[in-house]
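Minutes, project check-in
Item: structure for the 135-residue chain
Input as provided by the requester:
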Amino acid sequence: MNQKSRVLCILLLLTFFLTINAKLKRIIRSGRRIHRHVPQYPRRQERTRLDCRAHENYVRCGPEPHCEMSCDNLYSPPHCYHAKNHPKCYYPRCICSKGFIRNRIGFCVREWKCPQRLFNYISQNPNFELFFQIF
C-alpha cells in the first residue's frame, strides 16, 4: 500500500467511527435503549373480591383460566385438577358460581344461555317463549 492509500483508509475509518459515535450519543440522549426485543408475557389479571361480578366467586388460589367451563368448551370440558392445597396454585381470581359457565364476553351465565345450547333448550321446553314474553 502506498502512502495515499493508507491516509485515505485512516480517514474513512475515522469518519465511520465519528458517525457511529454521534448516532449513539443521539440514541442515549433520546432515552431509547439498544438491546434485542425481549417478548413480554401477558399480564395476569389478578382480581379482588370487589372485582367479581354477578354469579362469580372470589378464590385466592384460582385455577388456570383455560380450566374454567365456558360456552366454547361446553361439549369438551377441560380435565384440570384444582384444589386449594394443590402445589400448582394460580393467582387470585373470580370464578363462576356452581351452575354457571363463562360466555364469550366473560360473564357467568346459565348453560342454556350459550348459543350452542339455546336451540336445544327451546326445542325441549315449550314454555320458553312465554318466559321471555313475561320478562
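Outcome recorded: The chain is about 35% helix and 10% strand.
No further action items on this chain.
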